[in-house]
Amino acid sequence: MTIERRQVGDTLSEAAIHAGTIYLAGQVATDGTHNIEGQTRDVLSSIDRLLAEAGSDKTRILMCQIFLADIKDFDGMNHVWNAWVAPGNTPPRATVQAKLARPEWLVEVVVTAARH
Description:
Elements lengths: L3 E5 L4 E6 L2 E4 L2 E2 L7 H18 L7 E8 L5 H11 L8 E5 L9 E8 L2
Parallel strand pairs: 5-6
Antiparallel strand pairs: 1-2, 2-3, 3-7, 4-7, 5-7
Helix pairs in contact: 1-2
């Protein structure tokens, strides 16, 4: 089976597809000036776009990992997540506090999903 890579860069690909499974790179906000809710919306929008480009959507998420720069932002992130996630299709998820690669990033989300 082949591996299909999307948006390939020098350091990483935004997505890899293998055997009907889509693996997304960690998604971070494109605008680091937003608060946790704004950054979470930005990240989830990127996930929607990448999944659509790969032939899937948020109802097909198999696993999600969320990294918060500060766990105090858990409720704000969850508020946006709960409004976005497909009812009846909430995926297994882990949320942890972690030092992110750039100080302006408040949240990073990694998703694995099934292709349609």
